User: Fold this.
Amino acid sequence: MFSFLHRTGPRHPSGAIRKALEQDGLPMGIRSASMLRVVQSRGRYSDRKVTYIRVFDPAHAGERHLTVRDFSDLDAYPALILKAGHIEADGIVVITRRWPAPNCEMASSLGAAS
Assistant:
């Protein structure tokens, strides 16, 4: 109805997302989940409506001159996604992917140079 009220773009993690991130363990160098940003996309998981999330460090995205505006902006930069998962309709946050191995980005950039 009021789609203009639905804000898009990166957001600070909600309280539930911060709690899930902290329980799962923050990546090295991240002192607080509030340093991170979240982009979201609606979808389905096991035939349930969910909101998919990707968590990234805006400082690392900025170092690569990447402006993340929505969920798909990170498709080409999987190494920037520190955690991913979904939010169930009842608000439960499920983390299903952790940050990549340290050499993941280097390996993918080496393949592109060949």
